[in-house]
């Protein structure tokens, strides 16, 4: 039996001081699908559920961590989740990267004030988990 894993190429961008409508007040997070070697064999538009989580670094023995999570399922009409074209780039407008360069995400994922209320920042570091739910899509097919 041969098993072949096809590679989907994505990039996550995080802006600790925000971008766009969240600039200066929020953590902004985005995901973008990039051109890859196996794009011709993959399903398009991108059909998988995506989740971002800002991890609460509180000691789990002392308190239950309260991660901040946002999840979305791409709409088949969204241009950012169509098959990517090699060499396609976005632009910079007004000092912020525009959506075509960033992909899709949350310019106001969490405010700086909310981040200070728990241990999202610890030792001057944050941890962000991004997940793509390929298994759920396969089960629903």
From TrEMBL:
It comes from the Eukaryota. The keyword Ribosomal protein does not apply. This is Tnf receptor-associated factor 4b. Keywords: Signal. Residues 1-132 form the MATH domain. GO terms for molecular function: tumor necrosis factor receptor binding; ubiquitin protein ligase binding. Gene3D superfamilies: Apoptosis, Tumor Necrosis Factor Receptor Associated Protein 2, Chain A. One of its GO terms (biological process) is regulation of canonical NF-kappaB signal transduction. InterPro entries: MATH/TRAF_dom (IPR002083), TRAF-like (IPR008974), TRAF1-6_MATH_dom (IPR049342).
